[in-house]
């Protein structure tokens, strides 16, 4: 298993030497999210990434990235200084995307969706509009399908860092906030383990404050899953990773209330009271719930 700092080293290698990034500057891949132990994955992803400048492809800067299906149906788009625009979501497709376009550096567009949204044979196309050294606009494209990933898999090591926002260091720990939402507790745990970490365990007022300083700018109506659970014994909260009893609480008034078998702990925003703890279901794939990993930094 690659540790967090090793994955970041790979990521920054592509920033510094894009020509040697898997032998190319442009990559479009698909796969299944979090298929383990022979259990079919419930979601799939499309990940399009390009690094500029890229002399081998005559690319000086990137203008926009689009992902299409069925030839002309656009699923998502991201362009310079613009947020990701996800299309077709009003037609019953459960799509969610993150991405960015930088004139120089790594640009990417990442889309996830329920696996039964498209057939395995569906062909997807990523189209990147770029400029050459003379300022002329042109496009390059690549196709992929879900057939090659029908048995599942995980996001590639180069795409993983693009899925999370990384905090500053707090007492030799860092925190990783997911950009996407809709994961169950077990899925979130596996993502954290991919980085050698675990769902965040908040042990003090100081740590709680440091986490709030980090996540408050990214909440925007989301809840954030953390590491506490009372699944074994109701109202007896323990950390899922360490197994230690939870001793620091910052519940909102009336919480935890266990409405609908809510056995996992999350941070949620209330307009009148700010960010406080709440209990939520562990197994529900609910859009609007992100997760927070905690990484113990190796400072040797």
From TrEMBL:
Coiled coil: none
Record has Signal as a keyword: yes
InterPro entries, per database record: C-type_lectin-like, C-type_lectin-like/link_sf, C-type_lectin/snaclec_domain, CTDL_fold
Segment forming the signal sequence: 1-21
Source taxon at top rank: Eukaryota
Domain C-type lectin: 170-270
Record's keyword annotation contains Signal: yes
Entry-linked SUPFAM superfamilies: C-type lectin-like (SSF56436)
Sorted UniProt keywords: Signal
PANTHER family per the UniProt record, alphabetical: MANNOSE, PHOSPHOLIPASE, LECTIN RECEPTOR RELATED (PTHR22803)
Protein name: C-type lectin domain-containing protein
């Amino acid at each position: 298993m690659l540790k967090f700092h090793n994955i970041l080293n790979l990521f920054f290698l592509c920033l510094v030497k894009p020509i040697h990034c898997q032998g190319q500057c442009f990559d479009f891949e698909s796969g299944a999210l979090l298929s383990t132990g022979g259990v079919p994955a419930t979601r799939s992803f499309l990940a399009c990434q390009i690094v500029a400048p890229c002399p081998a492809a005559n690319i000086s800067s990137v203008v926009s990235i689009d992902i299409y299906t069925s030839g002309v149906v656009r699923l998502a788009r991201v362009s310079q200084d613009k947020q990701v625009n996800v299309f077709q979501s009003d037609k019953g497709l459960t799509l969610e995307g993150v991405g960015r376009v930088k004139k120089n550096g790594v640009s990417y567009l990442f889309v996830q969706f329920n696996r039964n949204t498209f057939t395995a044979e569906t062909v997807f196309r990523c189209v990147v509009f770029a400029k050459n050294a003379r300022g002329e606009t042109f496009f390059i494209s690549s196709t992929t399908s879900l057939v090659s990933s029908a048995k599942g898999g995980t996001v590639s090591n180069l795409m993983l860092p693009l899925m999370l926002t990384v905090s500053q260091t707090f007492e030799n720990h860092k925190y990783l906030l997911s950009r996407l939402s809709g994961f169950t507790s077990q899925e979130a745990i596996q993502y954290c383990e991919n980085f050698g970490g675990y769902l965040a365990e908040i042990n003090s007022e100081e740590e709680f404050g440091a986490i709030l300083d980090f996540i408050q700018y990214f909440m925007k109506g989301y809840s954030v899953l953390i590491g506490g659970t009372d699944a074994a014994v109701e109202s007896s909260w323990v950390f899922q990773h360490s197994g230690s009893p939870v001793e620091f609480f910052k519940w909102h008034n009336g919480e935890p209330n266990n409405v609908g078998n809510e056995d996992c702990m999350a941070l949620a925003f209330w307009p009148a009271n700010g960010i406080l703890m709440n209990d939520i279901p562990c197994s529900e794939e609910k859009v609007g719930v992100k997760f927070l990993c905690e990484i113990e930094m190796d400072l040797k």
